[in-house]
Design goal:
about 190 residues, 2 domains, mainly alpha, about 70% helix, TgpA-like_C, 10 helices, Papain-like_cys_pep_sf, transmembrane helix
């Protein structure tokens, strides 16, 4: 029952565009209104299809949570606290294990080759006089720093740095250069 029909029956019997067609301001701000072109068949059909598409879209998006719940119920069955805890704990434990393995690999000491090991021993020997090699310090700079503090070791440290750079960076891995490097390191350790 429509109570407005008793007050103004034309509101029920006529459409909005028929009722307000005589009003001067009706649809004046929307010249391309679909209601204004409602009498043209293909425009009206297009308007109805757009509205149907809009309705389908809203129905699909708004009722998505209902379908999502039923989909999860189909996959996992009845959702209990234990299933939820397991679903959260499994990925968390995998990520935690991956991080732990990465940290353990990082802490594993690297085995040094004989060239780096002998340089490390020389650095520890010179650390007694405050000349330990700093982390990340290039060997050439280290040799210059030691030569500045201990001029008697300047020639030996220059030889150590030169041979080290030949072994590491010049691709010269012959036994003659290795022997000269070891002799220079021993001489530095004797004089340190």
């Amino acid at each position: 029952m429509d109570p407005t029909a008793a007050v103004a029956p034309e509101r029920v019997e006529q459409s909005a565009d028929q009722l307000l067609a005589d009003e001067p301001g009706f649809l004046s701000e929307t010249p391309l209104s679909p209601v204004r072109f409602g009498r043209i068949g293909w425009v009206n059909e297009m308007r109805l299809r757009i509205e149907a598409l809009n309705y389908s879209w809203h129905r699909w998006v708004i009722s998505f949570h209902l379908r999502q719940g039923s989909l999860l119920e189909q996959w996992f069955g009845d959702l209990t606290l234990w299933k939820l805890a397991l679903a959260l704990a499994l990925p968390f434990s995998l990520i935690l294990g991956w991080v732990a393995i990465g940290l353990l690999r990082q802490r594993r000491p690297r085995t040094l080759d004989p060239v780096d090991r002998s340089l490390q021993r020389l650095s520890r020997k010179l650390a007694a006089s405050g000349l330990e090699r700093r982390t990340g310090e290039p060997v050439g700079y280290y040799a210059e720093r030691v030569a500045g503090a201990r001029p008697e070791l300047a020639a030996l440290m220059s030889a150590v740095a030169g041979h080290y750079e030949q072994l590491r960076y010049a691709g010269r891995d012959d036994s003659r250069v290795q022997r000269a490097y070891r002799e220079a390191v021993r001489a530095c350790m004797r004089n340190a």
